[in-house]
């Protein structure tokens, strides 16, 4: 597919110019890495995928440039002054880095380096433990290219073209997107890109990053309109689907599940209604798709198994029941419903 950093119509550089540019880029990256955390020659060689002798030459080059490279116990670093964090601030940064690490679409080196930079102000002992918990994979991942193309296109306001794997397996070809916003879903820890898809539907759409195939950057530029506000698309979202057509789903939890519900932390949820028998009702607003179903909310509801009942609205209740029946038929083909749904039960 070529270098994702190059634009579709950019002229190729001469070999000598390209070699010089790559070396300058590598030295700048090496400087950033050494400011973020101490690293040995072997670790740097693995990170960059080059022999140790190349790393040693680069380290000497940085020293000759007066970058302040220091060596201690076989590890190199470039000390920089950082503002000290208090205990709560340090814990907050630690939690943010761990959360971002789990959200990573792939262990892309650029993404991981950003985490190290964010962690740079942590106390040394805490930072060392955090560094050890982050594993950098130097292998190429399928969605690395999409991550890099989307990031650069958003930064430069350039249109991208790509094919898209739909959830049903079909390949939607020839999307052209003006990237407006990137959101991480709270439900599946996956990044999504929101923007104007100008080629197929001429509308603001949401695409999952890992389903983007063969992305390229076009010469066309764009501006994000003042009328675009991410809240308009994310309000009432359970994950990343919100917008103008949210619905409210009422669910009832059995007493043995109620304690987990009462712990809270669920987005767009009402105050729980507690019944004398210990069961709990909860109203949850969630974005619906073109069929009127809250596709992101339904897996969460189904994950509660027999400990939850969908009370309404009726189309959501029917869909929930059909999913349960389909699951039972898969393991027990003899199962047949003997009576129509009698409606919501009373506590």
Automatic annotation (TrEMBL):
InterPro entries documented for this protein? CBASS_pafABC_assoc_protein (IPR051534), WCX_dom (IPR057727), WYL_dom (IPR026881)
All copies of the WYL domain together span 146-214
Renumbered residue ranges of the record's region Disordered: 1-20
What protein name is recorded for this chain?
Answer: Type 11 helix-turn-helix protein
Specify one Pfam family: WYL
Start and end of every WCX domain?
A: 246-328
- Which residue windows does the record flag with biased composition (Basic and acidic residues)? 1-10
Signal peptide residue numbers: none
